[in-house]
Design goal:
heterodimer; A: mainly alpha; 3-stranded antiparallel β-sheet; 3% strand; B: 6-stranded mixed β-sheet; 5-stranded antiparallel β-sheet
Amino acid sequence: MRQDSLTRNIDWITILLYALFIMLGWLNIFAVVYNPDPEVKQNIFDLSLNSGKQLLWIGSAGILILMIFAIDFKFYSAFAYVLYGFVVLMVIATIFIGLEVNGSHSWIGIGDFRVQPAEFAKLFTALALSRYLGDVNTKFEKRKTKLIVAGILFLPCLFILLQNETGGVLVFSAFTLVLFREGLSPWVLIIGVAAVALFIFTLIFDKYNLSIGLLLLSALVIIIRVVTVRKVVFKPIMLNSLLIIGVAIICIGIVFSVNFLINNVLQEHQRNRIMVLVNPEIDKRGQGYQVNQSKVAIGSGGFFGQGFLQGTQTKFDFVPEQSTDFIFCTIGEEHGWIGSTFLIALYILFMVRIVNLAERQKDSFARIYGYCVASIIFFHFMVNIGMTIGVFPIIGIPLPFFSYGGSSLWSFTILLFIFLKLDAHRNQMLAH
Amino acid sequence: MGKERKLVVQLIFILVGLIYIVRLFFLQVVEDKYKEEAEKNATRKIIEYPFRGLIYDRNQKMLVINMIVIDLMVVMKEMRVPDTLRFCQAFNISKEEFIQIIKKVKQEKGYNKNRPVPIIKQLSIEDYGKGLDVLADCQGFYRQERTIRSYPHQSLANGLGYIGEISKTQLEKSTEGYYEQGDLVGISGLEASYEKYIRGKKGVRYIMKDVHGVVKGSYHNGEQDILSEPGENLYTTIDLELQKFGEEMMKNKIGSIVAIEPSTGEILAFISAPTYDPNALTGRYFSKNYDSLNRNPMKPLFNRPLMAMYPPGSIFKLAQALVGQQMGVLRPTTIYPCNKAAVGVNCHPHPSPNDLKGSIQWSCNPYYFTVFKTMIHKNRNTNKYRESELNFDDWRKHMFTFGFGQKLKVDMPNMKGGFLPTNSYYDKIYGDLAWKHSTIRSLDIGQGELLIVPIQMANLAATVANKGFYYTPHFVKCIGEGKNARILKEYTGKHYTSIDSSFFQIVIEGMFMVVEHGTAYFDKIKGIEICGKTGTAQNPHGDDHSVFISFAPKSNPKIAIAVYVENGGFGAVTAAPIANLMIEKYLTDTSTAMTRWMRTNVTEKDLILKNKKLYQ
């Protein structure tokens, strides 16, 4: 009876999309390792290939899904803090016992089996955040609430940062969208985006010219305000103008501190990644290599693409980290603009769907968690595809459900299916 | 608030997605440079070299074929040689050479340890076979086949020429954009002059490579590949048997034989002595052999029939007799005595006085002294110098129509024109109106400033045989086969001399008498009516050069020939027997006891040994 209601209430559309991502991802991982030499007979199931290994990960993800559905839905809110505490401890442990991979100590291994605790940190942080904000006693407007929310978010960030895994930290900014839905001022979003834009402008333009531009802009805004205001009263206009000029001066301050930030705070590889983003031509053989090769691979796809298994750039190792972080290149090269657009549309549909599901929850824990799921997937989607086409700096985060690798597939599967489990029980939640 | 913010969040998702889709549209559809760059990254163009056209003689016998050789290639990264010494022995190199080769390969531009590079080039199949056992124990070695030229008969070396890597200057000069550095190109002989036809068309193959340069199969299943087209075959006019026959007789001599079919201008034999085995200039030992041939004091690479400029000697009297008649100062009945003392000219003992026919039969020097004098001082009612100038100019114009003093448009490169002096040449030496017959008198018997190359001499014989015209001598009967077979137009046109054809008969009669009962009496061959003319060209360095031109049979001639043997003495002694034996060989392909004796005699003559000090 209970099983029946689960299959009836579960959102099959989302599951269908999930299955589609997993399958397309798997085929593309095979395309990366595919050798066109007719003498080499390759089998997509071959366990020595990434595609074969990915199939194992997919199979184990299936088991995880069954387990998630088997566990009582109340477990996830009840144990949210415990799980959160556990994962924070794991992250801390990793700093000391972690294996070094590509300069970051973010992996722990038991035999051949390796996992990245940071991948799971965002998942349990999402649970803890939802549990806290979803509590009927929590009032988002209170300062204390905001401080606790900040604490929940920053604690794992701090330790992940100590692992030297910047990408994992940046993912936490995705929660801004969740907080926005729960009442955070839109200015936080606007100022955040503006700050990033200002940062990039600083890299592109001369800082003195940029400062003059900012001052001129603020003057223009003041003039427009004075002209358009209906009733000229001196005092508010004065205050308003002072505020605008103040903002401009802060911006100029940021402009002048960016260089300091870049040269003295960021590490060299991070600095290079940002510089390459602004000017991909500067170092095609060095730091710009990966971005350039990635763009070449995607660009060579044209409108219709080279065809499945026909791509040369992705197959022949021209793009480093092809099957993990740069899997999108394979889509771009082999399936062209049509294929890329199809995949992006699929992701949009998927994320919009999750938000819709979140909004139909009667229980705020489930709703907030739903937003967490959508936001985390969105951040990965935006940054991962963005870096392959050269609009984001290279941050090593995978494309959800698509990239090769067990940790990422597992964590995204758990992330999504806890929500689907909660969604399947949305009517029981009401009783709760 | 919730509903609005939900929409805002969803809008952000959609907006970012749309921005990416637009960005991708520019990246993938609008921008072209990425496609090019991707192709540059992952493909490599491999030139497929075509088979060069084969070369046949006039009876479809192979003169030049292609032979497969093997380049031993190695991928440095994979190279394992368990026993270097054994390896070196198997491929006949020293250990130092081997180390040297490896070092050189690694320093080459574009060297990549993942890519096969040739380490021993152009191994014959036999040599490669010898190394196979050793290679079985080694790793990282591959074979690459390619073709080189091969000459089954070792004949006609200078005529066929050789191929080699295109030089920088040639590469810069070539405007058609066909060649690339490292391409093989015909450098001399027919290989050079028919390069355009026999080279074929290069093909292109695109292969895929990965980021390390390792080959990963053909690109787009070879759709963009262009197959190479083999070159066209050449059917030459050379008679291989006659050629070999002549080469045999010219052993240990320096000189030339050119035999032409008068009715077509086809070159039947083209012998430059000393010659070399053309196989020496192919394959692995090209540079070594080339150096040694190039340093050889006998200059075997010098294409004498086309390039060696000699004083023609008495064979020039034929031209003098013809021009004299044309200029109206000489008639068949004109008689001059062999008055050596009076004219200050040497001559050998012979019956005297002679008419025109007799003058040729006995090659009388004083006769031609007088003939030339009457030509140059033909009365013009002006002073001697002025009339010398005018008459010499006429004389030269006539001579020029025989093909002297100019490069005939032979289908072989590097022909020399010889030298037929001009008015201005003498003006420069002696001053304007300061020279007359006595100044230039050496020309009368083909000495002095006059220089002629052997092919022009053969052409003179052919012109007389044709009674007044010649076809430009050429080597190729036809290019290609079947429907594509074609003959080059420039060799089908007659070139007329300015001499009336009626003046030739008496000269031919004289030439007939030369062999029948004259200077070449000893070289007569029973049963063949040969018309010839001996020449003995003075030479300040040693013995006289022996010259003979002839054609046969007397009526309807089939072969005209010129033989020039350096330091061979009297024309009748060396050149004439060679020429007449060639004629016998070509016309009858038989021999008599007499001609076999003649042949042994002339073949065994070692002029190089005799004149050793000339070549030191």
